[in-house]
């Protein structure tokens, strides 16, 4: 590996932030889980169904890294891929606020830039793809979606084109404005149903899945990271989040996303701290409250969603010691290439010093060790710190775990 590339990888590891580039280089262990995910991708593409995987694992053990690995492999299989990190600004209780992030994080195979423009590029009115999409939207989706598409294909005004593309990307165009655009383009009025973003946004997800398939992709992979932040919401918002999760986990016959594989990454603590907590666990409290509010059908859906989370979540297994050792040896070799030296680093000693630490801490410890030895030429004395994790409750601020290595 060239020096510049080695430095780039070392800096990425030092930041502690996983990336697609890093995952393409560091892909160790967990072959069994990756094989399952690849089979799920093939199945979704083959029978045009939707599939969901809930992946649970401890903080700092490689969940986000694994999502980036499957991102790369899905693109090799001709899948469009969307990657969204859930947060207070992108709460899963509001799919109308999640959808714009999904579009903004959607990459077609071989495309460098994400977004809706790449999906709509070269789709012309009267073309086979254009007619298929319009027919699907006319008969299966909210009337607003159809009229946005129809006018997008016909728009001659640059501002109108911009506004219509913005609507398809989740920046909702008011219905009255859409009617005015339609009048300019077609000389007649359009009858458009009332559009409620929170209730009707699912049809935009369905449009996106269908458009990806019609563009010749094998399917669509959607990756949601940090779903555990649902636990920091209020109880009403959590009920909405579980209801929205039901859209993905338990779709109706006419409601599924064609050729779509969705993966949710969830911290293991979500189960004992939120679903099954000792005081008012969600699995009991939320259905009870929904029934009391006169929503028994929704209570049943939420209960089924939470039972699915309990029964079907797949655990991210701990990497075998041999794989961790191989990874740390690779970090040592990259450090040597990046800075042009021959480090004498005892990998077994690093493993012993971090034997109770998580994977992310082991890597950062190794980097700190190598940096100090490179700079001072002496055997550094380090202590692996204990990671701090935010509580998953309504009062907790959303955020990731902080891990430190103390010198």
Provide an overview of this structure.
There is one protein chain. By secondary structure, this protein is α/β, with parallel strands linked by helices. It has 3 domains: 30-118 and 215-315, 3-Layer(aba) Sandwich (Rossmann fold); 124-200, no CATH class; 322-384. It contains 19 helices and 8 strands. It has helices spanning 3-15, 20-25, 31-47, 63-76, 95-104, 116-120, 128-140, 143-154, 158-168, 175-186, 197-200, 202-214, 235-249, 270-275, 282-292, 296-312, 321-339, 347-353, 359-376, and strands at residues 50-57, 79-85, 106-107, 219-225, 260-267, 314-315, 383-384, 405-406. Helix 13 links the parallel strand 4 and strand 5 (260-267).
Q: Terminal Cα separation, in Å?
A: 30 Å
CATH homologous superfamily name of the largest domain? P-loop containing nucleotide triphosphate hydrolases
Choose one word for the global shape. Answer: globular
Average pLDDT over all residues: 90
The biggest sheet amounts to: 6 strands, mixed
- Oligomerization category of the chains in this entry: single chain
Question: What is the CATH architecture assignment of the largest domain?
Answer: 3-Layer(aba) Sandwich
How many structurally independent domains? 3
Rg computed from alpha carbons, rounded to a whole number of angstroms: 24 Å
Number of helices: 19
Q: What is the beta-strand fraction?
A: 5-15%
**What would you call the structural class?**
alpha/beta
Report the CATH C-level class of the largest domain: Alpha Beta
| Helix/strand order | HHHEHEHEHHHHHHHEHEHHHEHHHEE
Strand order of the largest sheet: 3-2-4-5-1-6
Tell me the helix content: 40-55%
**Which regions are unreliable across 5 or more consecutive residues at pLDDT < 50?**
396-407
């Amino acid at each position: 590996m060239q020096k510049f590339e080695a430095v780039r990888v070392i800096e990425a590891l030092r930041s502690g932030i996983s990336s697609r580039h890093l995952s393409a280089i560091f892909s160790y262990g967990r072959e069994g889980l990756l094989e399952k995910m690849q089979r799920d991708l093939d199945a979704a593409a083959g029978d045009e169904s939707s599939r969901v995987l809930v992946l649970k694992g401890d903080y700092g053990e490689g969940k986000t890294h694994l999502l980036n690995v499957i991102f790369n492999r899905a693109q090799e299989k001709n899948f469009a891929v969307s990657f969204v990190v859930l947060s207070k600004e992108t709460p899963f209780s509001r799919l109308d606020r999640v959808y714009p992030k999904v579009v903004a994080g959607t990459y077609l195979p071989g495309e460098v830039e994400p977004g809706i423009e790449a999906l709509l590029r070269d789709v012309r009115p009267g073309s086979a793809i254009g007619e298929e999409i319009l027919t699907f939207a006319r008969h299966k989706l909210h009337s607003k979606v159809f009229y946005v598409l129809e006018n997008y294909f016909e728009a001659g005004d640059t501002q109108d084109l911009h506004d219509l593309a913005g609507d398809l990307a989740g920046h909702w165009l008011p219905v009255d404005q859409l009617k005015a655009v339609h009048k300019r383009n077609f000389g007649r009025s359009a009858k458009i149903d009332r559009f409620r973003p929170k209730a009707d946004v699912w049809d935009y997800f369905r449009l996106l899945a269908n458009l990806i398939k019609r563009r010749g992709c094998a399917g669509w992979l959607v990756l949601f990271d940090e779903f555990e932040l649902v636990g920091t919401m209020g109880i009403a918002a959590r009920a909405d989040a579980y209801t929205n999760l039901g859209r993905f986990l338990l779709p109706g016959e006419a409601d599924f996303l064609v050729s779509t594989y969705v993966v949710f990454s969830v911290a293991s603590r979500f189960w004992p701290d939120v679903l099954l907590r000792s005081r008012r666990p969600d699995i009991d409290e939320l259905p009870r409250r929904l029934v009391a509010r006169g929503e028994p059908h929704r209570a049943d859906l939420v209960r089924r969603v939470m039972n699915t989370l309990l029964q079907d979540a797949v655990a991210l297994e701990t990497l075998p010691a041999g794989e961790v050792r191989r990874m740390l040896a690779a970090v040592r070799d990259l450090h040597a290439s990046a800075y042009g030296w021959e480090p004498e680093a005892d990998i077994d000693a690093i493993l012993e010093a971090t034997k109770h630490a998580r994977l992310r801490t082991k890597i950062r410890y190794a980097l700190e060790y190598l940096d100090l030895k490179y700079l001072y030429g002496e055997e550094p004395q380090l202590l692996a710190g204990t990671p701090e994790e935010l509580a998953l409750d309504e009062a907790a601020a959303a955020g990731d775990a902080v891990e430190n290595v103390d010198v």
